[in-house]
Amino acid sequence: MAFTFLHTADLHLDAPLRAVALRDPELAAEIGVASRTAFSRIVDLCLAEAVAFLVIAGDLWDGTYSSTKTPRFLKQELLRLEAAGIGCYILRGNHDALARQTGELEAPANTTVFGARPSTVELSIDGQPVALHGLSFREPHAPESLLPRYPAPKPGAFNLGLMHTSLNGSPGHDPYAPCSLAELEAHGYDYWALGHIHRRFVHRGRATVVMPGTPQGRDIGEAGAASVTLVQVGDDGAVTLEERSVAPLRFDRLALDCTGIADWSDLLAHLDRALRAAAEAPRAEDHLVLRPVLTGATPLAWRIARDRDRLTEEARALSAGRRLWIDKLELRLSEEGAELPGAALPEDLVRLVQEDLPEDPALNAALLAATQELARDLPPEARDLLGQDEAAMAALCRSLLAEGTPLILAELAAEASD
């Protein structure tokens, strides 16, 4: 008998999105409840689609970040599912392995929180046997594969495995319960409901393997559409997948080619048109947080770098009333065709700053080391602002270096003119 379920992961309830909130108090209220709003919409979607159950593959919580009201909020949402006869199956990942909220949650009868020992829940959905297998993290780190501990598939049932994993991992990422797609397929389950990586990933083979991504992005590093996965299992066991958006808030970059623009008023008009188009474009989310990325060769490059703060405020003024907010400006401009104030800089120096320095391994390593040292000096609740892992931190360093290049040239030009 056909049935439907909803798969999500990495909600990080109450995780602080402070980087934007600190810049725009008006948006702070929306950001503060974005993850909760997303979860309420997940429950709404479960009810609207009359799913058989909801699976949450880890990181429902975000470590110690939580209001004392969160367990009560979650229980109220789970009770909405229970009233509709919809089950909920929750796995604990690296961020909520030790979260006190899990212990404080008085789970309704419809909710199962998998423990640190492998277990299986067997269901019968209109006569169709379904087996859900899960194993939560006992500690925040799981450097070894958990797959060998998962139970064997139940014969004749639709077997679904919940796992929080980095899969094969990627450079710069710490391994979390690493395993390969081939190993997951060989285990014999029909569907693997994964969590941990915040980008959607789907593999269709002997098993359907889905990483749904986070349903609500937390910063510009998680730009673009976010979604949950609605899964329909047919009478013949065939699996159909559908992305659904539940996010109230979307982060995105806005490319703005400034090539040839030589007048500040023309630049503002160009920016205004781009912001208007972004605001009017169809989207599922209620609010949009944009980071305009200015590119191209323009005589204004030096002035834009010098007056970035002024241009940022003007961009925010232009966005007012359009249900979008400006995060900050990212500059990738060149000075081709521009006259720097004062004496011209040597071409070799410009090439060194623009091309050689960003690619210098020693400089990138030094920047990463300095950023890691800074992170250690920050309060624990602020450290994620610099990246949640080494790869994210390295990407931040590269981005800041790219943004700082025009400022370096501007300072050098100013000194030369003096």
Automatic annotation (TrEMBL):
<keyword id="KW-0540">Nuclease</keyword>
<protein>
    <submittedName>
        <fullName>DNA repair exonuclease</fullName>
    </submittedName>
</protein>
<dbReference type="InterPro" id="IPR004843">
    <property type="entry name" value="Calcineurin-like_PHP"/>
</dbReference>
<dbReference type="InterPro" id="IPR029052">
    <property type="entry name" value="Metallo-depent_PP-like"/>
</dbReference>
<feature type="domain" description="Calcineurin-like phosphoesterase">
    <location>
        <begin position="4"/>
        <end position="199"/>
    </location>
</feature>
<dbReference type="GO" id="GO:0004527">
    <property type="term" value="F:exonuclease activity"/>
</dbReference>
<keyword id="KW-0269">Exonuclease</keyword>
<dbReference type="InterPro" id="IPR050535">
    <property type="entry name" value="DNA_Repair-Maintenance_Comp"/>
</dbReference>
<dbReference type="Pfam" id="PF00149">
    <property type="entry name" value="Metallophos"/>
</dbReference>
<dbReference type="InterPro" id="IPR014576">
    <property type="entry name" value="Pesterase_YhaO"/>
</dbReference>
<keyword id="KW-0378">Hydrolase</keyword>
<dbReference type="InterPro" id="IPR041796">
    <property type="entry name" value="Mre11_N"/>
</dbReference>
